[in-house]
Amino acid sequence: MSLPPRAVLVHRTTEYEELLSRHGTHGQAAFFLSSRGRAIDEIVERHRRTRRALAEVTAAVPLAWRQTRVERADLDRFLFAPEDVVVVVGQDGLVANVSKYLAGQPVVGIDPEPGRNPGVLVRHRPADARKALAAALASGAGTTELTMVEAVADDTQRLLALNEIYLGAPSHQTSRYRLSLAGDQGAVEAQASSGVLVGTGTGATGWIRSVWQERGGARADDAPRLPDPTEKRLVWFVREAWPSPTTGTSLVEGELVEDDRLTLTVESERLVAFGDGIETDTVELTWGQQVRIGVCPQRLRLVG
Question: Hey, which of 75, 109, 228, 255 would disulfide with 122, CB 3.0 to 4.6 Å?
């Protein structure tokens, strides 16, 4: 006997809740903000709007379904099940945060603040939740398969991300490694840099795009073209590569398709890889270890 679907409502602590946690009371939080020239009213209203959206989405879950909630900080400890329908209520970035923990479950993005969020990944309004939930399980539903990026270390550590993966030093120190491209006549180069970014088409509206623009990507004929979110292609950039007698700067950008892999061999005491800005969930690497980064076979199923 199969289990009924479970709606997993993913949300994050609001700014108002964080203020109350730090200052204890509404009055103390209001005083703290006023001393810095900011009013608490807008923050309270945004909190109420988010809570209303959560309540509306909760009410839209069919009675025959099971449901639960998980806060962003607890995602790495939450066990998603195959029959789950993941409902993200929040910003676009929250969809990226949850994507790395999924294995093909459909995701419904709900925007509690239309006009404030770009709405690239949170494509539905709270009032549309019931319809979107039904579509998530419908055969041949209108889902978009978004490309993800993965990093796999030689000790089997694995990291997934929807936007981008950063590999480098965990601080502002120089990252030292040996970069190799098997698909480019075996090109290998020792480098010292501020780290390496490998991003998807979904991430092409964020960090990856800013690096691409700084490199003159829109104007340079030889610059890699930013991929579309559903395209099985990634772009990568080395940040601030430093030339020296032992390190080079000739391999600083490119693209990866299908089976292509960018390989980094660590030549520092400690480097880390993290995805989508979640620095608390990292792959730890040390001297001599290798990590291979490329297109992830797994994709994010976004409803709508």
Answer: 109
